[in-house]
Specification:
Elements: H1 5-18, E1 20-25, H2 30-35, E2 39-41, H3 43-50, E3 57-61, H4 64-73, E4 78-80, H5 96-105, E5 110-114, H6 119-123, E6 127-129, H7 134-139, E7 145-149, H8 152-159, E8 165-168, H9 181-190, E9 195-198, H10 204-208, E10 212-213, H11 216-226, E11 230-234, H12 238-243, E12 251-253, H13 267-276, H14 285-301
Helix pairs in contact: 1-13, 3-4, 4-14
Bound molecules: 1,3-dihydroxyacetonephosphate and iron/sulfur cluster.
Iron/sulfur cluster binds near residues 116 and 261.
Organism: Amylibacter marinus
Cofactor: [4Fe-4S] cluster
Protein name: Quinolinate synthase
């Protein structure tokens, strides 16, 4: 932390000078999360905040689709992503042409796309969702059949919470598919008192082993409220590190899976981006307008 202090100070000074705000996802490393973030949250919270911030520049502590979502919602602002290569296995798994193919296969069915998608895919969809509102968004769609993209695991987990029939694209989060149900069963044997909390991007058999499942913000709230003596967070492991100080009575057990894309964002490249203006995200307005419709419909339903 001492070595990080000069970066933290430089970023915070430059933020004030450049009228900038840092929106950081819950998976950012603790130096970013605690040192320079102005607002932290899950994907839905960050999207909502992007519509409200007063500063003229947003620095996205997160991956490219999050910065693109901020730009779509606040086109008049400068949105900077400190590393353009911070992608997402889900966003990369599907194109707008794939959405059209699914529409042709299931005529009339509404397309609900996870925010973990490019602007083109959002624009081709009827509405977006995040892990915190997916079941609610699916329930709100007309018709008995809903197309969910691109996360096949999220779709299967949502299918257990709704009466709608769901057909889905078979994309996956490269971090959450690494968790295995038999590993969790092993953990239970050795740590029978530990609470297991999983993100819905995990396969359904993993979620079946969990005591609670929710978005990153939902998981944090659950730990804050219940203060379990021992907890296993079945998600990107920066999450546990970020909230450990807040709940000293809670013991965070392994395993640790990091998202290589989220990890690309560092104090160094945040400072560089803020200093030089490098990493500005642009979305052509005609495309942004269509994508905005899908994101705004979600925000309106929350
Ligand atoms: P949430 O923060 O919306 O739960 O999403 C998790 C995620 O995978 C972000 O990349
Ligand atoms: Fe994408 Fe998974 Fe990384 Fe989130 S954790 S950015 S869903 S690859």
């Amino acid at each position: 932390w001492l070595a990080r202090a000069p970066y933290i100070k430089a970023i915070n000074d430059l933020k004030a000078e450049k009228d900038a705000v840092v929106l950081a996802h819950n998976y950012m490393t603790p130096d970013i999360y605690h040192g320079v973030a102005d607002i932290v949250g899950d994907s839905l919270q960050l999207a909502i905040e992007a519509t409200k911030v007063k500063q003229s520049t947003i620095i996205q502590g997160g991956v490219h689709f999050m910065a693109e979502t901020s730009k779509i919602l606040s086109p008049e602002k400068t949105v900077l992503i400190p590393d353009r290569k911070a992608g997402c296995s889900l966003a990369e798994s599907i194109t707008a042409a794939d959405i059209e193919m699914m529409r042709a296969q299931y005529p009339g069915a509404k397309v609900v796309s996870y925010v973990n998608t490019t602007a083109e895919v959002k624009a081709a969809s009827d509405i977006c969702c995040t892990s915190s509102n997916a079941a609610k968004i699916v329930d709100a769609q007309e018709g008995d059949l809903v197309i969910m993209t691109p996360d096949g695991h999220l779709a299967q987990n949502v299918a257990k919470q709704t009466k709608k029939k769901i057909v889905y694209w078979e994309g996956a989060c490269m971090v959450h598919i690494e968790f295995k149900a038999d590993e969790l069963r092993e953990y239970r044997k050795y740590e029978p008192d530990a609470l297991i909390i999983g993100h819905p991007e995990c396969p359904t058999d993993v979620i079946d082993e969990c005591d609670f499942s929710g978005s990153t913000a939902g998981m944090i709230d659950y730990v804050r409220k219940n203060k379990p003596e021992k907890v296993l967070l079945i998600t990107e492991c920066s999450m546990g590190s970020n909230i450990a100080n807040e709940v000293p009575e809670v013991n965070f057990l392994g395993p640790c899976n990091l998202c290589p894309h989220m990890q690309k964002i560092t104090l160094e490249n945040i400072l560089w981006s803020l200093h030089t203006g490098e990493g500005a995200v642009e979305v052509e307005e005609k495309l942004a307008a269509k994508a905005r419709l899908a994101v705004q419909r979600m925000i309106d339903l929350k």
